């Protein structure tokens, strides 16, 4: 299964002898974004909201999440943000189904880590899709990123290099 492979690759990533090579390539990707203002890069560590408000911050965080094989969390959060801007009822329903199938349903190709209860609430919300139907799942995913991935991002060699150059 793809999820098992993802987990195994994640474990390998955290082995020091392998992480160095992977970490170096992510440093190069983040290093190419030198146009980020020094101030903006430093603001990212003030709060997770500051990071999410910044287009280049989201890009840097996404690049970091790819190294951890967990970019689906941010992709889901961003898809929900885009979804909330949808005004057409027809488009709302089709986008909701697409997001659910890609990120929320059990065994989804890019399944986010949410509990069964939240998954079921979200499934029920699809029957009358509104711009708020993913709110609970999105909030849980955001909390997971803020409490788990974001602190690791701030400690990562890539972010540390960016702050040194800022």
From TrEMBL:
This protein's UniProt keywords: GTPase activation, Lipoprotein, Membrane, Palmitate, Phosphoprotein, Signal transduction inhibitor
UniProt subcellular location: Membrane
A single GO molecular function term of this UniProt record: GTPase activator activity
The keyword Isomerase belongs to this UniProt entry's keyword annotation: no
Entry membrane topology: Lipid-anchor
Lipoprotein in keyword set: yes
Protein name per UniProt: Regulator of G-protein signaling 16
Source organism: Balearica regulorum gibbericeps (East African grey crowned-crane)
Origin organism lineage: Eukaryota, Metazoa, Chordata, Craniata, Vertebrata
